[in-house]
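Treating backbone geometry as a discrete language has practical consequences that deserve illustration. No coordinates are needed to read the tokens, only the vocabulary itself. For completeness, the protein is quoted in full, as a sequence line and a line of structure tokens:
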Amino acid sequence: MEIKGQAALVTGAGSGIGADVARHLAKAGAKVAVLDVNKEAAETVAKEIGGILATAIGPVIAAGLTAATGSWWPIAVMLIVYSAITLISIRLAPETRGRDLVDLEDAL
């Protein structure tokens, strides 16, 4: 798979495995969006690799609401919203428009 020029979104990229994945993708030529709840750590990695910084506050809010309400609904709503964003992005992105992503040859 050709990574150069592709867009990559790495969650947990402020440290550990996520940071290593972000560095590897950037070194291979991908445009990397760095997401992490730790803004300072994400900012450091984004500056290091020349990536885009984005902090993921959604999981923090959902976890706080779950703890406050004692219900799992905030987590479910967050996952539904994230899934909707993903599906819309896949349909609108020029890299995936008109491709059968179930077919392995077409997905790569």
